[in-house]
Specification:
DNA-binding; NA-bd_OB-fold (chains A, B, C, D); two-stranded antiparallel ribbon; 2 helices; mainly beta; 165 residues; single-stranded DNA binding (chains A, B, C, D)
DNA sequence: TTTT
DNA sequence: TTTT
């Protein structure tokens, strides 16, 4: 009886760190900032804006997408789950890191856009139904998750979407 | 064992319809549009943009907020649940309408802003933690939900049943 | 600037209706009930339990999973988006139906279980990260979505790295 | 442009730690476990069950509810946001802790139940619409969140729910 | 380290 | 009926 669900919309702090392994495994890591507006209380107390940094971890078929499109400053929608892992730092002290293991990453139009002139900035919004991964709007369709449950969404040709109902 | 949760971000189609009753009850209704980008399939098929219209229903303490701030064009974040009700139309035919009963409505900065020059447009983002209702950024804190909408939830009778309180 | 997200946990009303098309497209439909407890207001008014029925629509690679495992009574977790479509009924009257287009369907242990003796009922909980679709716990692994973005989720060993693929 | 949303369903690890301050502030902390089923890969590799522990932080009007009802073993639904804070441990080393700041806590029937014999476990499901916080069914309406950002949520009595539609 |  |  369990649910562990995270939904984030924010901006990427710097270009993702991407690693491919001999085994074929792939991982991308990036930090995502979500911000809460500051405000002033009735009594005059000022509560400043607060930024939260999330460690996003992406694996498998989402990695190439992230590698290609997600950049410092990108406005991104992330769905995934929380995971905390521990490791021993250089001094032998046990450390804990909490990460968001993403099972969906999509572009969100925030007005910001990558410096490269690609068109993801024209996205009208996030399209969760689009599947596990996403591709910038107007991106050549041949960018595609090798076969994801969802990718079908973009790769399918005839089927579902021209169903007679 | 049940969960009925909806999260929407979109734009308001026209000014909300607000009604106050003698009983003190209040209801606001507005339509919210969410859009999916169009895209082109690998085979060249063009799947056009698609807009979905949601009937949002707001009650109780959220109503004054909606009445005051939510306008045609507003970028809004809504959390709530799905509810379908039926009614008989003029011709006696039974009709069904699905609505989203909101328990949270907040401004989302979409670049669009109400024509009145208020400050909700300065919001840096939605702040779900802000509570059941929301108020535009920098709004005097005394704007507050006097009473709430969830309440019903908590006064259960029978089943939960026989809890000693 | 758009988000259209639905998360439901409930019970399936009857065995899904599954259709495969010559085009290769596949669709499964089933109804899902979510319930709210009844309660009594401070003034003594009794608000009875309320059951909401959702029309779930599943496409593509999720269809075989649904066909095989989802049955009347199944406790199910569904993620998707809201979509309303219209059609003309037999009398020529325009009708609207709101459906939840699922991009994730998983078993949830509700104590209810399919009559067939399979083991999905032993699931410890829903595992959204597990992917777009899901498979009952302890199900022979060979049941699997033909390779979805998530499915990888089932193949991991230790952590990120060192993955054998 | 920001969203930081967490939805968890799991079991409480031990009785919450509750503190009230002279200022009137109140905080409750408890750990919540969510579990992923283990599974076996096609190649025979066994991936064991994995339990994730979340640090839940509750404030204001939700505190009395948590203090009274949430116990070790309770099946609980939590909605909130992720927050990471740092502190210096005894040895002067900077540590980070990620917590979930809840703005909604509700009972979920998981079959598990508090040791005290109350019946919250018989709840038919979580009712997110019920509000920012929650209390077991049948609670006298006077149990109420005094007035917090969310709290307002709990004070209404009659209205809305006996609206003529 | 991002954004507004 | 909104927005990009």
């Amino acid at each position: 009886m369990s649910l562990n669900k995270v939904i984030l919309i924010g901006n990427v702090g710097k270009d993702p760190d991407v690693r491919y392994f001999d085994s074929g495994a792939a991982v991308a890591n990036f930090s995502l900032a979500t911000s809460e507006r500051g405000y002033t209380l009735a009594n005059g107390t000022v509560v400043p804006e607060r930024t939260e940094w999330h460690n996003i971890v992406v694996r498998r078929d989402l990695v190439p997408f992230v590698e290609k499109w997600v950049k410092k400053g990108s406005g991104v929608y992330v769905e995934g789950k929380i995971r905390t892992r521990s490791y021993d730092d250089q001094t032998g002290v046990k450390r804990y890191v909490t990460e968001i293991h993403a099972d969906r990453v999509e572009f969100y139009n925030t007005g910001t856009r990558p410096a490269d002139g690609t068109q993801q900035n024209t996205n009208a919004g996030v399209q969760p139904i689009a599947g596990q991964s996403a591709q910038p709007a107007n991106t050549p369709v041949n960018y595609q998750q090798p076969t994801s449950s969802q990718s079908g969404a973009f790769s399918e040709t005839s089927d579902a979407d021209d169903l007679p109902f």
